[in-house]
Amino acid sequence: MEEKLMEILNDLRPDVEFEKETELIDGGILDSFDIVSLVSELNSEFDIEINVLDLEPKNFNSAKAMLELIVKLQEEG
Known about the structure:
By secondary structure, this protein is mainly α. It is built from four helices and no strands. Helix content is about 55%, strand content about 0%. Helix 1 (about 1-10) packs antiparallel against helix 2. It is globular, with a radius of gyration of 11 Å.
């Protein structure tokens, strides 16, 4: 799962070191267009539904946070 997430992130923004970055949103690295694309991709790839309440910077500031969100949503679903 982590490998697929990294593949999605690297396809989205090959210029970012997602393994190390912890302020993807707060640091302005990902913009709203990136997030829209990312959410769509994550929803379809991991069979989850990221809703408006999940769209908080803390859930998208790092690859680790995104992975935790994916796992949480899969467990709830």
